[in-house]
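Write out the 3D structure for:
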Amino acid sequence: MQADCANCFGLCCVALPFARSADFAVNKPAGQPCSNLQSDFRCGIHTQLRDKGYPGCTVFDCFGAGQKVSQITFGGTDWRRAPKTARSMFEVLPVMRQLHELLWYVTEALDLAPARPVHKELRQALAHIDGLTRGSAESITELDVNALRGEVNTLLLRASELVRAQVPGRRKNHRGADLIGAKLSGAELRGASLRGALLIAADLSGADLRDADLIGADLRDADLRGADLTGALFLTQAQLNAAKGDTATELPPGLSRPAHW
């Protein structure tokens, strides 16, 4: 569930669209290769993406969907050698990415000891989703991913509640809250629900985010300098990459301090 670009056909650089903005230097429609994509499917400016105006690329994470589509769904045959497969391959990628994201969350939930009461259902969900990722291109693109996400989210929410119930004291609920630019420096948010919260450019420096549920929270340009994210639930590398932090930011195991911090 980690991106392996060496075994991917540069799918995120072709299949996905982007618009000229603070995140991307130019416009690119879906299905058109990025001008920086090389013949070996590597990015020609990978080490300079932020300097060249492509910070959006540095925060994208396919959760390993790229290599799954390239090597399993399409058996290692790339879209340049088999142009007739290109459209189908590009349509599969965004669906596969969502499936792999769900696999990431479910796998994390299975590692949470307090969530043991839902582990059986989580294991069943994991096996089901994994099976779906190994289907044909047609079966994958026909999936109702929104319905699947809803079913899995019920289990993830239950797992989150079981874990956060271990946190002493009152736990704040900011689920889906609009906290864009909020001044939350030093805030006591241990065990809080920040599921789907908009935290764009929020000041969370020095905040206590231990055991907080951050699934789907938008952390673009959020200030996490000195914040404690120990045990934060369902936090992804992409969320960290989109935020700002420093050497004093405490991270959960398995996640890396972004290079631009």
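The chain has a mean pLDDT of 96.
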